[in-house]
Write a structure and sequence with these properties.
mainly alpha
Length: 152
């Protein structure tokens, strides 16, 4: 399971970074509305990680799937936040100021606030998507004859 969430976490982070750089290339990186696609990228990464794990195991336990989804999203969030910290502090320091101006905040620590919001949004997105996908992928207790929750 370790290899799966590392692999899919890294792939998801790479796609997030590539998407951001593509937006930067066309000049749309300072419009927060385009960050909604980050949720779709997270969704695809977490879902594919869960499907890969489920296909490898004969029995898909809820706890393992939940852990896999959270770790996949967590790794992607941490790597993307590190990239954004490097981008904000080293490459384009005006980017954070442009975003913070759109929030109508007069704070000196706007860059740190932006990075913290990336972390919170990434982890919360991962949690919600993991809970949602586990409802789709978990094993059912109901059998073909319609008996519910029997322990036989």
């Amino acid at each position: 399971m370790f290899k799966i969430y590392i692999r899919y976490g890294l792939i998801t982070a790479a796609i997030l970074i590539a998407y951001f750089l593509l937006l930067k290339l066309v000049g749309l990186h300072d419009m927060p509305v385009f960050s909604a696609a980050n949720g779709l990228i997270f969704a695809v990464g977490i879902y594919l990680a869960m499907k890969a794990y489920k296909n490898k195991k004969s029995r898909f336990k809820y706890q393992k799937g939940f852990q896999l989804g959270l770790f996949t999203g967590g790794i992607a969030t941490i790597i993307f936040t590190i990239f954004m910290a490097i981008f904000i502090y080293q490459i384009d320091s005006e980017f954070a100021n442009t975003i913070i101006e759109g929030w109508s905040l007069d704070m000196d620590s706007g860059k740190l606030l932006l990075l913290m919001s990336l972390v919170f949004m990434g982890f919360s997105t991962s949690l919600v998507l993991t809970l949602s996908f586990m409802q789709l992928l978990k094993d059912t207790w109901n059998d073909a004859e319609g008996r519910r929750n029997s322990m036989k």
